[in-house]
TrEMBL record, chain A:
Transmembrane stretches, start-end: 12-35, 55-80
Record keywords: Membrane, Transmembrane, Transmembrane helix
Protein name: Cox cluster protein
Species classification: Archaea, Methanobacteriati, Methanobacteriota, Stenosarchaea group, Halobacteria
Pfam families on file: DUF7520
Organism per entry: Haloarcula rubra
Keyword Transmembrane helix among UniProt keywords: yes
The keyword Membrane belongs to this UniProt entry's keyword annotation: yes
Taxonomy, superkingdom: Archaea
TrEMBL record, chain B:
Pfam families: COX1 (PF00115)
Ion transport as UniProt keyword: no
Protein name in UniProt: cytochrome-c oxidase
Known pathway: Energy metabolism; oxidative phosphorylation
Protein family per UniProt: Belongs to the heme-copper respiratory oxidase family.
Protein location: Membrane
Organism superkingdom: Archaea
Alphabetically ordered keywords of this record: Copper, Electron transport, Heme, Iron, Membrane, Metal-binding, Respiratory chain, Translocase, Transmembrane, Transmembrane helix, Transport
The enzyme's E.C. designation: 7.1.1.9
Organism per entry: Haloarcula rubra
Transmembrane segment boundaries: 6-24, 67-89, 109-138, 150-170, 201-225, 237-267, 298-314, 326-347, 359-379, 391-413, 433-454, 466-490, 510-535
Any GO molecular function: cytochrome-c oxidase activity
Amino acid sequence: MSEQPAGRSGERVVVQLYVVIVALAGVMGFVLGNIRPADLEPELFGFIALPPTPLGVAIYGLVTVGLGLGVLLALVVVVSRRTDDEAGKRDPQ
Amino acid sequence: MAAGDLVLTGLMAVLLVGIAALLTRIENWRSYTPLAGGGTATGETVVHREKPAGIVRWLTTVDHKDIGLLYGVYAVIAFAVGGIMAMLIRLQLVTPGGALLGANAYNSILTSHGITMLFLFGTPIIAAFANYFIPLLIGADDMAFPRINAIAFWLLPPAALLIWAGFFLAPVTENMIEPAQTAWTMYTPLSVEQTNPGVDLMLLGLHLSGVAATMGAINFIATVFTERAEEVTWANLDIFSWTILTQSALILFAFPLLGSAIVMLLLDRNLATTFFAVEGGGPLLWQHLFWFFGHPEVYILVLPPMGLVSLILPKFAGRKLFGFKFVVYSTLAIGVLSFGVWAHHMFSTGMDPRLRASFMAVSLAIAIPSAVKTFNWITTMWNGRLRLTSPMLFCIGFISNFIIGGVTGVFLAAIPVDLVLHDTYYVVGHFHYIVMGAIGFAAFAGIYYWFPVFTGRMYQRTLGKAHFWLSMIGTNVTFFAMLALGYLGMPRRYATYQFDGAIAPLAQVQTYHLLATVGAVLLFVGQLIFVWNVVQSWLEGPKVEDGDPWDLERDGMLDREFQWFDRKLETAVTDGGEDEEQSALTGARSDD
């Protein structure tokens, strides 16, 4: 009675989720660049100045959130390989 | 005025006649026992050995499953009411001058929307799952106190009527009694100085819902501690029960405080006490008391949904939850820390900066256990084979929205950011990502996952997925637009808006409001599909004949509730099933 007996690769779904959320951060950057609040001075990593344009802020959002969540995702990969007892149990069907 | 009095007198008379009619039935109730071996000596028609027939069954039931269903129906009705209110709010804000409502009507609907969704939908929908499934998951016969369980539920309908009373009474009292317009936070001095008796009724209703929640919490704690089957130990207690236990502890500490604060507010309003007056405790005292309840309330609402996701997600990932212990520890950590963050709602009130800093630190710290959970869910998915069923889609949607709601929340926890964004739509967007995007999604995941258990039927899968995608897109369009509105400086709670061009162009603000409304329409259509799917499938959906409708046995993940369901199908000893008498006699496998 299951809806979809085959199943999909969890890795692929998680990466898709990561891409969507990072893309949303980029869209938010674009929106902010359009709104242009007072004193908007995006600085990547605190020292690389980016222009306060939609594109500049979108890059800021993409890189910052992409890197932040990317580090966490990398951690997920490492942890699931090293400490997850169930890793490798389930070969793709 | 005279006509209003007359109508009120009439209503009271109807109420009294109703109570008298109910009292005449008490003798019958007494002779009805809920015990498994007991019978009904009332001579009424029964559909089951232990239960009377028809509406009387639902009014007198003390069966945890029946009460769970009552909670569920109640919550869905409240969700519909709150959802219609949300639609009215969104339609109003399509044009800067307000498209639909006057300012008072807008304020009334805004207030009731918040209270309805948090107290009449959020808490009851969690209680619905907990009532139905906690005893099954821990191998208990029923809740520890079945009658208290029933009383706790039956306090809720009058609570809703009191909270919404102003809407019913305004037309018949020539607006002498209007709906409360205090916003759900009921900040003083506004809430003290509004002379409208509708505020008193709303406060009493809220108090009643708090009493109900507290009674339920005591019952869950007693049940999990004392009613577990022998083989269910603390070590193998399921994750949903852990979150309900923690949530119940939070309720036990938080809701009585809300009740006390509400009584003080009622006294200030009606008996000229000065708890929250400048010459007394001061208006800020209300904010401290309210948020000491209010922030744990956020976790009261989000911990069990986290438990639902932790329970359901592994089932469709085909593997155990990664780091189970850490998910439990993080639940407990959130429970403890949730009482140390309340003043982050008050950063802009002018409170002592040293206090602000400490609350900022704890608010940032509470992100850690939340992140631990997210990390574990994602790691669970990473090594899994995912079956994208409707409950699983809602679990993944939960995680996605929770990340966005959580990250925007971390920024708000920082004092400098909060001072800029406080009371703007950014805050509204942030917490709606959590309450709708996460809590609402987990509730849908739970409803779809257990639909076969509580209805004996399967929902329409295509409609379930349509519901998910409309909800997911609608949530993100609506609340993303609200985050942008916050950056534009749009304040919360306004019925109309005008902007100085130096702050933000009005056209731009209106565009985002329009976008938010379009998203809300998507959400609304999605929920219509949900209600249709549930009602239609419950009545006419294909009957489930397999006790393992999700193929969980294959991965060794068939929990107790599905084992119970399987036994129920095999033995046909259902509680309140329509034709189990006959089935039991024939020993036939039920097709229910």
